[in-house]
Amino acid sequence: MRTIAVVNQKGGVGKTTVSINLAASLAREGRRVLLVDMDPQSHCAVGLAVPDEQIELSVVDVLRSLRSDVRLGFEQVTWQITPRLELAASTRMLGELEADEAHREDGTELLRRALEPLGRKYDFAIIDCAPHVGVLMRNALTAATDVIIPVETGYFSLHGLTRQLATIEGLVNGTGRRINVRVLANHYDVRTKLAREILAELRRKFEHVLFSTVINFNTKLKEGTSCGQPITEFAPESAGARDFQMLAREVESGSAAMEPSEAIHALAERLGRETDRLVAARAPLMTRDREPVAAGATRTVARPLVRPSVVPSRPVERVAMPMRPFERVAVPPGLVAQRRETLPAAAGADDLHTRIDAQLAEIYGPRQTPGGVVFRTRHPAAEQVMLAGDFNGWMPHETPLARLDESGVFQATLDLRPGRYRYRLVVDGRWEFDRENPSSERNEYGEVNSIVEVR
Fold first, then answer.
1. Structural domains for the chain
2. Cα(116)–Cα(124) distance, rounded to whole angstroms?
3. What is the pLDDT of residues 214-250, one digit of tens each?
4. What is the pLDDT of residue 269?
5. Which of 69, 77, 121, 264 has its Cα between 20 and 30 A from that of 446?
6. Cβ atoms 152, 194 nearer than 8 A
7. pTM above 0.70?
8. Most confident range, picked from 8-12, 270-274, 286-290, 323-327
9. Is the model's pLDDT at 17 over the cut of 60?
10. pLDDT band, residue 366 (cuts 50/70/90)
């Protein structure tokens, strides 16, 4: 059995997403896989829709049993995710175990001892590690035959990677075993010049340890996590699923599943440059000359139903973006007829559209009122609309919008202190920007976050 520890001392790099989807992709390739969550935050359970309150036995119980006369095996704590994939979930109690074992000489050997009897049952064990150097990470490295370090192709990915590799190498040398350490480029957005430059630099500096496979930015990966499914189940034909399939094959074979040709690299570079040129040329023509709309946070205090890691989002650079699509926003029944009565009959088509847009803006989008900030949107086909943003830790389930009528109008009133907030709408699990709010900025995943300011 090969044991692969997915490690990064920096949070928010997609470590759990990589662990879940690599495990699921190996299982899809016909391998028997055990996914072990060694993070007390239990992100694997969240990402696979395992209810926290139903986890009676977990990894911590297996490890603690090694200190007692009554042994507990992994087969007694695992959850069946797919026919060939099982999850050994964690709980917050794992953090207490770390404190208990910190001063024991053999405290870093527990996971290796617990996995030893499983050599014939599984082909792979994937370990999702805690994002800090401690007893839990040392347990994972002591048990591992391979280490994967996922890194984003953003500005901070290169900074400190050499130091982190040195740290991991030092920890690996401390185990007295030979372990294969590899780096995985994650969240790669070929459309951005920065991402292309960072990937080229990663290949130049870390060619000997960098996977040939690159995990490209794909919204289906985030949507699958928020729905509690691996990409192999949520969107098996998506680009994200294909990336992880290639990664699984490269991991299994030890070489690239498919080496891109120089012509493909050249084409990607040319398309990226053309995209940059077109965006720069068209953005000024498409941006509306409208003042930003103020908005804010929930009237009721948010209660954590989902852990923040499920919906991370950290914008990095502003890009001028059109906040209204080319097609005109759907209008509620009766609204146009009602507004026509108030408009002069002689008004021109442009003036008519401008005035209708102005009055629609008073109805949809964020609007600050004495009672709080009102978010209103219309999605006739949606079953559920939620808000995720700075005001609720990017946890959409904490801020559902109420359906006002059968036409699909949803609304929530939020109460925030003055300040600037980023947010997105989550419509039936799909993340999108607020099309009725012209104020926005890009985040590091290439998506658009809407911006509201409370005065």
1. 2-266 (3.40.50.300), 308-329+364-454 (2.60.40.10)
2. 12
3. 999 889 998 998 899 999 999 999 999 999 999 999 9
4. 55
5. 264
6. no
7. no
8. 8-12
9. yes
10. very high
Q: CA torsion sign, 349 to 350 to 355 to 356?
A: positive
Per-residue pLDDT tens over the stretch 240-266: 999 999 999 999 987 544 433 444 445
Residue at 216: amino acid letter: N
Q: Is the pLDDT of residue 286 over 50?
A: no
Q: Would you state the structure tokens that stand for residue 98, as one six-digit string?
A: 């770390």
**Judging by beta carbons within 10 Å of its beta carbon (0-12, 13-18, 19+), is residue 180 exposed, middle or buried?**
middle
Residue 424 CA to residue 439 CA, distance in Å, equals 12
Residue spans of alpha helices (H) in 126-261:
135-143, 155-158, 161-175, 193-205, 219-226, 231-234, 239-253
Residue 310: count other Cβ atoms within 10 Å of its Cβ.
21
pLDDT value of position 288: 41
